[in-house]
Amino acid sequence: MASNVMKFGTKAIHGGLEPDLATGAVMTPIYQTTTYRQLSPGEHKGYAYSRSSNPTRKALENNLASLENGKYGLCFGSGVAAIDAILKMLRPGDEVLSTNDLYGGSYRIFTQIFAHFGIKFTFVSMSDMAEVEKHITEKTRLLWVETPTNPMMNIIDIWACSQIAKLHKVLLVVDNTFASPFLQNPLDLGADIVMHSVTKYIGGHSDVVMGALITKDDHLAEKLYFIQNSSGAISGPQDCFLVLRGIKTLHLRMQRHCENGVTIANFLRSHPLVDKVYWPGFEDNPGYVIAKQQMSGFGGMLSFTLKGNKKADAFTFLSNCKVFTLAESLGGVESLLCHPATMTHAAIPNGEREKIGVVDTLIRLSVGVEDIDDLIEDLKYSLSLIKS
Question: Which one of the listed residues 36, 51, 256, 310 is annotated catalytic?
């Protein structure tokens, strides 16, 4: 059965995969090897050196391509390494237009690494497509979209961005980490490249650091494969095996993330100490209509602020949760919470952070798959300790 006609739950388990050709093993083996015997100089069975390609990594790359309705998948040692590969397609003098509500690690590699090589980065709100188009110049080569955004959960219209990108002949890259391919498929909406921090929902168990790129475009794939091989920021076979295993329950996990997410979003919105809740599933959210169009659910990521905006209150809450764990990252089966201003977005200057809403009491939740009653009780307890 062709993977493009499979339903998502079937693709998660079978998409792009075949039983191992050497042994018939149903689960892809860990090919823990660096090199492969050649039949004669230059003649081999598709593998010569594992930096270039490895059977375990190749199986995962094929599986990821299937999940995103793409043609080519590439795996890297981290999400930032995947971003690095995209930016290496640019040249000094090129310009990148990005959302101003952006993951701190993306902002850091843009402004503190690649800006030094003569690439200009412009950050704008992407809620207004006319404003986006106004900032495109003859030197713009890349439109960088993250949706939902981290940590403000803003929704950006991928299809509208793709129309602008095509009109101006620039590449559209979408960071799809928060949604995962279960909830959103940017290639179907006109994106040229999809980027994932596989560390998050795709891996799903907080035990692997990895990044991935997926595309349908033959030329882009050729350039990215060259960079992947030449720069060498690849993922190892053990990590690829763990992600392949994690993907097999991606659809089941995402269903529970979404169910728990909606309950917690509504609980927080009704709590007297909570000021604002940022979650795209509220009908009065500015991005709700677009989210309904381009996503199949609203996910398990949300952020909220406390009334009074006192950092001490936020720290009291963060330090006293027992089921939610104070930690970096997101998308695992366990519920996590973090303080973006001092953790994930510390690389962004304070003034810039506050402009987009990353204030002292902004708290980001990655809602896991635990029993919802335990999660609600945990939040209730920790909020009850705030004295203001």
Answer: 51
Q: In whole angstroms, give the CA distance from residue 43 to residue 55.
A: 17
Q: What is the pLDDT of residues 65-104, one digit of tens each?
A: 999 999 999 999 999 999 999 999 999 999 999 999 999 8
Query: Which residue(s) pair with 122 in the sheet?
Result: 97
- SS3 of residue 198 by DSSP: coil
- pTM confidence score: 0.96
Tell me which H or E stretch contains 326: strand 325-326
Instruction: Give, in degrees to the nearest 5, the angle at Cα 270 between 334 and 177.
Output: 35
Residue type (1 letter), 89:
M
The distance from CA 103 to its chain's CA centroid, rounded to whole angstroms, is 9
pLDDT on residue 43: 87
Supply φ then ψ for residue 66, to 5 degrees.
-65, -45
Annotated catalytic residue 103 = yes
b/e burial code for range 79-107 (CB count within 10 A of at least 16 → b): bbbbbbbbbbbbeeebbbbbbbbbbbbbb
Q: What residues does each domain of the chain span?
A: 3-247, 250-384
Active-site position among 84, 175, 192, 378: 175
Selecting among 72, 103, 201, 278, the annotated active-site residue is 103
Query: Do the first three CATH levels of 3-247 and 250-384 match, i.e. the same topology?
Result: no
286 preceded by cis ω (within 30°)?
Answer: no
Q: Give, as one character, the DSSP assignment of residue 187.
A: G
Answer yes or no: 278 catalytic.
no
Q: Is 275 a catalytic residue?
A: no
**CATH homologous superfamily of 250-384:** Aspartate Aminotransferase, domain 1 (3.90.1150.10)
- Judge whether 107 counts as a catalytic residue: no
* Per-residue pLDDT reduced to its tens digit, 4-13: 689 999 999 9
Question: How many distinct helices (H) and strands (E) make up the chain?
Answer: 14, 12
Residue identified by tokens 């995209």 is: 86
Question: Is the Cα dihedral 84, 89, 93, 96 positive or negative?
Answer: negative
Q: Tell me which of 200, 216, 253, 353 is the catalytic residue.
A: 200
Class of domain 3-247: alpha beta
How many Cβ atoms are within 10 Å of 385's Cβ, its own excluded? 11
Summarize the confidence of residues 302-331 as an average pLDDT.
96
Identify the pLDDT of residue 345: 82
